[in-house]
Every structure is written in C-alpha cells, then in structure tokens.
Amino acid sequence: MKRVFQHPPEPLTGKKYWRSLGELSDTPEFREWLEREFPAGAAQLEGDEWSRRDFLKLMGASMALAGVGLTSCRRPEAHLVPFTKSVEWTIPGKPLFYATAMPRRTGAIPLVVTTHDGRPTKLDGNPLHPASGGATDAFAQASILDLYDPARSQRFVQRGKKSDRAAFESHITQLRKTLLVQQGDSLAFLVEETHSPTRERLRAELEKIFPRLRWIVYEPLLSEAQSFATELSFGGNLRVVPKLDRADVILALDSDFLDCGQGDLASVRAFSSRRRVSAAQDTMNRLYVVENHFTLTGALADHRLRCPASQIAAFAYALAGKILAATKDANLGSVIGTLKVPVGSATFDEQWLSEAANDLVAKPGASLVLAGPNQPVVVQLIVYAINSALKNLGQTLVLREFPHHLSRHSILSLAGDIHDGRIEQLFIFGGDPVYNAPRALAGDRRRELPLDWADLQKKVPEIVRLGYYEDATSALSHWHVPAAHYLESWGDALTSDGAYLSIQPMILPLFGGLSEIELMNMLLGGPKVEGPELVQETFRATAPPGDFQTAWAQLLRDGFAAHIHLVDRPPSFNSNTAGILAHNLWGAGPPPAPTVNSPEIVLVASYAVDDGRYINNGWLQELPDPVTKLTWDNAALMSPAFAKKLGVGTGDLVQITVTEKSVRKEPIKRELVIAALISPGHVDHSVTIALGYGRKQTGPAGEEAGFNGYL
Predict the structure, then answer these.
(1) β pairing state of 462-467 and 425-429
(2) Separation CA 11–CA 13 (nearest Å)
(3) Residue range 640-672, pLDDT digits in tens
C-alpha cells in the first residue's frame, strides 16, 4: 500500500505557517502533487523511459568519482606535501590530506583535499587559515564532481579535427615567431577574473615581449563599477575590504554579501560571528537590507525594505541627505551637494529611512554601508562618501593594496577592434563569450557592433581556446585546448583579503589538459614545465629569508603563506574628484520608477550554477535554490501583486521584450520567453531572472535546463 506523506498537525494556537504558495492556496492540483512520492516523473522509472535527467546523466561523474572507468588515474610523481605529517608509506583505504585552493573571481577559497589511493574524494575548508577558519561553500564542495565529469574536454581539436599536444606546441612555436615581428600588435587575450600572482607575473612578461597586446578581463557578473569608483576615490591598486565583524550596524543596498558568489567566505564568517550571543555582555549586529527580491542576505535582515534595483540610487541620495544633515560632513556635501533632486523616482518609507540613517549616525566608526556590484558608479561614489562621513574608513571599511592589473581594454573595445579587423590572434581562457557576451555587447552606445559574439569571433583569423568543455565558443575556435582542473594543476591565488594561497595537484591531468600559466609559459618560449617551477619563481620573490625549500614545503603543507600580508593604506577619500564624477554621471537623476507597463528586468547570479559555469554539475543542479526552492531551472520572479495585474500564475510562460536605444537606425529589441514564478517579498513592477541557464552546447546534465537570461 502506498504511503502518502503527511505533514505534522498544525498547532491549535499561535501563528500558522505555510511552506509554499501552493500550500497556502490549497488547490486540488497542489493536493495531487503532494500525494505523489516524486513530484516530477516519478512513474517514468517504472516504464521504458528514464527520467530525472535520464539518471545516468547524473551518475556519470559519480561513477567516475567511485573509480569506475578511471583505473589509469595517476598521481604526480613528486613535489606534493601532505597536509598532515609525512608518513613512510601509504596504507590502502586510509586517506591522506593535502592543502590546496579553489580559484574564484571574488577570491580563492583555501581547501583541504581528502585523497584515497591517490584519488581525490572530498573537499573541506582549511581550518588553519585564519580568515576562513575551515569554512567552505557549495561551489567548492561540488567542484570535485567536475574533476570526474565525463563530459569535460578530453582532446586537442584543430579546426574541428582531433589533434594532440605535440601539434599544438609546434603551432605555438610558429605563432610566437609571427607575434615577435608584430610586437603583439594584433594579439589579444580574453580571460576570466582570477587573482593569481603567477598569472600576473607571466602577463607582465608577455607585455614586455609583445608590448602592443590587449589583455581583457571579462566576467558577465562582475561589474567594473566598484573598481572604477575605488580607483577614483582612493587611488589605484586598491581593494575595499569590509570588516563585518567590527560593524554594529550594517546597511546593504542591493548587496547580497552573504552569497559566496557575490561575497566571500570571510565576509560570511565575520558577519556570523556578530550574530552569536554566548555571554551577557555580547551584542548582536543589526542588519538593514534594501533590495528588489529576496536574497540570502535579505532573509537574515533585521529590517528589510523592498525597492526596485533601478531606484537604489534615489534611496542612496535620500539616505546621504539625512546623514549629511546630521554630520555636516564636508566630503559628503561635496559629493551630493550638486546632484539634482530625483524626479519621478520611487517613494520610500520615510520612517524606515530615518531610523536607518539615525542608527548609522549613532555608530560612527562602527557602522557600514555596502552597495552591490551591479549598482552603477554613481551609487558606489555616494556610498563611499557616506562611509567617509560615518568615520568608517579604516575601521569597518579597510583599503588594502592589491596587486591587481587594471586593464585599459574592455570586451566592448575588443569587439570594436575585432570588427575593424585589428585582431588576428585571440586567446580565450575559460568562459563562454558566445553564450554570455551578448549582454555586454548590447551596452554599446558609440558604434554599430554585432550583438552576436559568434559573428565577431568568425572574423578573427586565429583563435586559441583553453576551455573545460567543448562549448559554443570552442566550436568557433581554430584550436581548442582542454583545460586542466585546479585539482590537476599547479598554481597560486589570493583570497578576497589578499592572503597568498598555494594550488597543488592531487592527480595528474586525466586528459592531458593545460593550465593557463602553462599555456602562457609556452607562448613566452619558456622551457617545458611539469612541476611547480612557475609558481616557485613567483613565491621566491616574497619568500622569507632562509632556506627556500623549507619555506616552500611549509607553504604546500599549510596551504597559505603566513608571512605574506598585503598592506592596508591609510584612508584618504578624494571628495573633489568623486563629486565631479558623481555630478557628471548623475545628470537628471535616476530613471523613473518602474510601472506595470514598463517594468525593470534584473539579472542576477544563480545560487546553483553561478553565471553558467557550473551548469553541468548535477550536484549543484539538484540543490534547491535557498529562496525559491527551484531545481534544474530558473524563472522570471515577480511579486504576487504584479503577477495579478498581468494575469500571470506560477508556471505560465511570459514573453519579455527589452528595447534599448543605440547608434543604430532602429532601437535594439531582444526577447525572451520564460516561465513565471510568483515570489513573496519581491518588489512590484520588477522581474528578476537568474543567469546561467539555457546553454545549448554543454554536458548532458546541463542540456535543456532553464532559460537563457543573457538578453
């Protein structure tokens, strides 16, 4: 007899809670859904066809993780140093532990890898690292599945035909001779953001021999607004590091800093440390959040205000005015003093705004205001001015010297150079611009560029793609080179606060893949390296006095260099420059508040697949969204009131049309058909779409998953 799941009976007194909108409405469809043991395709496993992504799509990498089909897995022959004390021999079945790090765009994560019989099997945080304290996140833990992904790239490909490493190395040797004659005038690199000192060193060496090369860092979810505002307000080569453990009052403006895709583990740990009360004298911090849709940060807020993302600038202006009236700060006055009062913008709860401002003013040097990376430069400047007025600079907001190369070029400038025929050799490291670049290209306001990156890529005579999958970008490249997983390669990386981490391989590349630094060294004409030589050369410049081998062994054993500390620079806010730029960017003020006929579209990172890079990871796909509980999918989130006005229900397909002005004769129109999802707590007249889905060329786990939000 089939058992029907029954929730525990509701209490007779007190508040009644509902687990979903379906339970609240209690429709016959919901009751039928609840009676099924598996909500989607449960009975199909009993028939001829399999469901749940055909089962084996999920099991492929898991079987590989268990060792099926990988009997030839090899460990590197030398150089590794165990995380624990060295042993004379290994015992079959007994684990060994090694320290390494996972590179990420917001900063690397220190890890400890569990290995069994020379095969990595589990990832945990590094408890020795003082900032992370052994913490990790879902992306890091699930990344071990990517190592054994049977859909990952397993071959060198030249113009659609299988090749090998020897042929590729010969090609690079000939290409290098051509580039030396041209001094790299037609050479460009399109890379992802990763804070690797060794990659930065090799980039500088490439620029010495190819002084005219173009180096472009492109991340579809990493706006340059924050770095640009930081450079103008405080100077170059600086990163603003929030100290959340020092803040008594925090205001987050469209900033989901508790999401490790946007924030980092150190911030999450620091914030959480102030939410614990273990003694009578302990005090909790207070969190104010202003956002358009529910986020992890908003879910933990003490006070939350719904606000369209396009109206955050108007809110920041109103907040700055109240703080200026209370503090009489000259720097804040010079930034907002000449800005026009917003007209037609959203209205805000005056009591909420006043209480938030008063709470911040009451904690000088112990408050903090954060703006999300998707907010424009003018909002970042206003927020820096507010923190300056609140005496937070150097206290809860630290300026740290960061060896980061600020590129003079962007993906738009690269697109223009390709369109004009100035790029003949293009190296693409990671990413998938054919899939995610249209959003960036649509931002062109000065010239008529193709909106399809694929059309641009076809104009480049020579493209070398280093990729983890043979995706849409690789299909249009002349050479595809399989990328090595970070558990298969040597490297180094910096955390979000600048700590130096080592990356050491747990296993030799399963399919002969290359790392970025290996390919760059090849282009430099350096000797072939199969060990840590490239990283050692970088570390040698900062190693402590004494025996280098001892320091190197300590680095590998601990996973980080305790003696390397980036310098905090005394805060000096350049209010004059910030004020002039804010005045020019502000213009007539923020756009009008969205309406039912002209709603705003907000694109955000997915909690499961980020910007799409983890789309083929079945573990992450199966992980429910912490807010919407969606799996294997994305949707157009909207408020119940807005959905009612549109006559839309959860699951209904809606067509979204975005029209933008451009230099073209006709406005740009981009359309997307996507399923709707009613989301309580969402602001009205706003639609939020998680990116990363709808990829056409990916592994089997990612096929037909969701809708492509890169409009």
Answers:
(1) parallel
(2) 5
(3) 999 999 999 998 999 988 776 655 556 677 788
Please state the domain extents for the chain. 225-401, 600-702
CA gap 343, 439 in Å, rounded: 28
Q: Which of 149, 146, 156 is nearest to 522 (CA)?
A: 156
Domains 225-401 and 600-702 share a fold: no
Amino acid at 674: I
Amino acid at 133: G
CATH architecture of 600-702: Beta Barrel (2.40)
Are 375 and 310 in contact by the 8 Å Cβ rule? The answer is no
pLDDT in tens, 435-451: 888 666 655 555 566 66
User: pLDDT tens, 270-325?
Assistant: 888 888 877 777 788 999 999 999 999 999 999 999 999 999 999 999 999 999 99
φ, ψ for residue 401, nearest 5 deg? -65, 125
- The string of DSSP letters for 468-516 reads SS--HHHHT-SEEEEBPPGGGS-EEEE-TT--EEEE--SS--TT--B-H
How far is 179 from 191, CA to CA, in rounded Å?
19
Tokens of 55: 């089962």
Alpha-carbon distance of 148 to 153, in angstroms, equals 11
DSSP state of 245: G
**Distances, alpha carbon 593 to alpha carbons 351, 375, 495, in Å:** 20, 16, 38
| CATH 3.40.228.10 applies to domain 225-401 | yes
Structure tokens at 704: 């037909």
CA distance 440 to 431: 14
Name the one residue in this structure whose structure tokens are 């509980």.
629
Q: 400 CB contacts (<8 Å, ≥6 apart)? A: 238, 239, 240, 241, 497, 498, 566, 567, 568, 569
- pLDDT in the model for residue 45: 42
